[in-house]
Amino acid sequence: MQTTLLVEDASFFEKAIVKKLHEVGRNQIMVARNYAEAESCLNLPIGEPDLALVDLTLPDAPDGEIVDLCEKWKIPTIVFTSRFDAKTRSKMLEKGVIDYVLKDSPGSLNYVADLIRKLAKNPSIGILVLDDAAVERDAISKIISKHLYKVYQAGSTDEALECLAANPDIKLVLADYFMPDKDGFAFLKACRRLHDAEKVGVIGMSSFANPDNRVRFLKYGAADFVDKNCSPEELLLRVSQNLDYIYRIEELNNMAMRDALTGLYNRRYLLDETAKVMKGWAVTEGRNHWLALLDLDSFKDINDTLGHDFGDAVLKSFARHLAGLTKENDIVARLGGDEFCIVYCNRSEDEVAQSLQGLLETLQASPVKFDGQEHNIQTSIGASVLEEDKFDTALKTADLRLYTAKRTGRGQLVAAD
């Protein structure tokens, strides 16, 4: 469990910070009001904190000694203080604290909360540092690592492109523009041929103040440009802001491709993206890809007799059953109304039949319960082999077989003519 060490001697700030920590999901909090209490907390046999949020000026440690204590215990630390002193701030940042935040406005606490929220996510986010100079590459990587990102390094354009191909978790590249052989511009052009700006951001870097280079980088598809001599804080802020842009685009794309009620993929995703995704699927001997269309039986009667809220509960329950049938690479989508689709990747005919027949049996044994009422649901299913580049054909075949299932009794699977 994530544990936070909060060292704060002001009762007002303590309560406000604890509340904010709970809001971002950090519920196990050690609270200390001075250095001695913090030391006692760290010696408790309940596990070490993975994050410290500390004030600098404490009754028994007025000069930031608390940061040294956290450093001794190797705890990532955020300084949150009213003390504005450029020399002290610089000293603390040199010690490797994650950030130095002033309690100078109501927004400061929100900034800290947002930072903590991101720190929980950052270890899964890859950032690639491209620079032919190993010393500078290491220095930049060290700064980036302070915010717990997963950092990769490359010393050439070719190495960077190989690293991107091998590590899909990379969301952002920091690329030096001045390199022998293939420079940062060559990398950027090659990167943009392979990766959209909405999926992999690029920040150009340079030690030379040349406005033309900045403009060229931006024209070739970079999201930003920074001076290598900028402060670590500025670099980390630019990294965070560029990742926020990518996250927002991902969120919007996900919303556009998901059904709001069930959380499954929607018709748009199924028709626009499935064929592309399938190109990466292998087929082993005796297996195929399959497409199954499912339509809830008598769903209109459910809405008419039990109400639309009950109908929504039925749809969500059915969606959960379908999601439970899938393995890696399989796709489940709601096409609209009470019609759903499953795309099975690399399955034998028997596996598909067992999966879908099992669904029919599960539905019979699992009535939907909502607002004191319950109702058994059933579905008709049409299935077809799905060959690459023949999605429309499989969809039509499955639709015809679904119609047959409806016409010949409902609540059954038809997978052959």
Automatic annotation (TrEMBL):
It comes from the Bacteria. GO terms for molecular function: diguanylate cyclase activity. Its EC number is 2.7.7.65. The modification 4-aspartylphosphate is found at residues 55, 176. It catalyses: 2 GTP = 3',3'-c-di-GMP + 2 diphosphate. This is diguanylate cyclase. Residues 287-417 form the GGDEF domain. PROSITE patterns: GGDEF, RESPONSE_REGULATORY. Residues 3-118, 126-243 form the Response regulatory domain. Gene3D superfamilies: 3.30.70.270, 3.40.50.2300. Keywords: Nucleotidyltransferase, Phosphoprotein, Transferase.
